[in-house]
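Thread: "does anyone have the structure for this chain?"

Original post by V.I.:
We have the sequence but no experimental structure in hand. Need at least a predicted one for the grant figures.
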Amino acid sequence: MSGGERRRATARERAVRVLADCYDGRQRGRDLLDEWQQHDPLSPADAGLAAELVAGVLRHRITLEHIASRFYRGRWEGLRPSIRMLLATGIYQLCWLDRIPAHAAVDEAVKHARRFGHGIPPVANAILRKVSECRGEVVARPESPDPRRWLAIDAQRGRVFSEDILPDPARKPLDYLVAAMGHPMYLVERWHRRFKPALARQICESALIRPPLVLRPNLRRITSEELVARLVAAGHAAEPVEGSAAIIVRGEISAVEIPDFREGLCQPQDSTSQRVLMLAPPSPGAFVIDLCAGVGTKSTQAAELMNDEGIVLACDVDAAKLSRVAESAARLGLSIIRTCGVGMAADEAARVGRPPDLILVDAPCTNTGVLARRLEARYRASHKALMELVGMQREVLGMAASLAGPRTRIIYATCSIEQEENRDQAAWFCEQHTGWRVIKEDFALPDREHGGGYAVVLVQS
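Reply from O.Q.:
Generated one for you, tokens below.
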């Protein structure tokens, strides 16, 4: 796309371009939007609309494509991703965004369709007008809606269509979960087989909603109760998560909008993720290595648990992420976190002069426990991708074993619910590394309140 074309792009056109570029799930829509905004900024309102369209279509793309294909006279798979995303974006506006007039959504899509050839505008017009005609108004969920005609917008609301748009779950339960819940058959089949129908549906439904903001209070500066009180006094719907220090803040709000975040009183972190380090919490003065630190969420949690006394070595392959670790540590008032590339972990550990007390392996994974937050992850899910990740996880576990001393504890964790990445990996590690054993495990399936994941504590006998 040339510079001139970029300047003329609308929010909807930008959303379609980004959605097409991340169609295979290997790029993050949010990152692509940020890159475009940096080089060719939209107005705040248009940038917000583009972000809404990208996030919404990513969350419901399989459902949107299913609806579009019902009204397409031809082979849907033969359409290139950019055209599919043009139609998906139009249907998302018609069905999910009730503040956008139907005629505006249709007309804008048809205008945009001219970029794809003379045959595409009438196709877009026909499909979107058909969806507009047969969709009902947004209503509260009926007691027993016909699942073939009920399109859930959120947990409480949806639309009743005047004709069948989804498979019959009584006849094709897996096809229904794929089309209605927006997950690829590969994942639906796995979950249905392992967790059985009710839990498979829970997993699917958990990824349909916008997850609430979950905060970890910086206990060096404030208690959970005090932070809840501050948030409530500021007008936020905040409440503690039972059995942990985590706090849920409901409503459409991000952490950067909260003064308490900017003041270093809290850090966004899912409540399931917060439990990982609590399986073997490091003490003040400890030496901790975080081998897959990312942006440092668990590195900063470890430093807080240690009362900022000791050493936390945050390692990652991505230097840009490590710069964010330093930023978070400064905001939270933490001074004991050091950063290095993962390839330098052994050298940096040697400089400390003693074995680590704890090594955290928060491993790269399929993210199937947090699909509500990792919107693109479902589109890159496959057996091949799973096996590649299993190999990577074993490499990092092997590195952890090489860095460990006789009394080092290893916490291995994922935000996956796949057995190959979780319990099977712990068993493999103990088989491959004589003397290591499991002493604690934690596993959670995702629901509307929290993500899913696995964690295990490994020690030497």
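V.I.: this helps a lot. The chain is about 45% helix and 15% strand.
O.Q.: and The chain has three domains: 1-135, 212-269, 281-460.
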